[in-house]
């Protein structure tokens, strides 16, 4: 995956676990050819597809 940087931010253990769960699930979805969770729109500046 060229041009991809994954950078967690924040210090809450709960948030860190949630982020890891999201990354694992998105990795699974990517390999399965499924849509990703929490997809952001760079032009809009926010997430346009919330968790399913």
List the keywords.
52 residues, alpha+beta, two-stranded antiparallel ribbon, 2 strands
Number of domains: 1
**What is the CA-based Rg, rounded?**
12 Å
| Secondary-structure content class | alpha+beta
Poorly predicted parts:
none
Order of strands across the biggest sheet? Answer: 1-2
Amount of helix = 25-40%
Overall 3D form = globular
Q: What is the number of strand segments?
A: 2
Helix and strand element order = HEE
Major β-sheet annotation: 2 strands, antiparallel
Summed over residues and divided by their number, the pLDDT gives a mean of 81
Helix tally?
1
Beginning-to-end CA distance, first to last residue: 24 Å
**Beta-strand percent range:** 5-15%
Structure explained in plain terms:
The structure is a single chain. Helix content is 38%, strand content 13%. The protein has 52 residues and is α+β, with helices and mostly antiparallel strands. The protein has one domain (13-49). Strand 1 (39-41) and strand 2 (46-49) form a beta hairpin.
Write the layout of secondary structure elements.
Elements: H1 13-32, E1 39-41, E2 46-49
Antiparallel strand pairs: 1-2
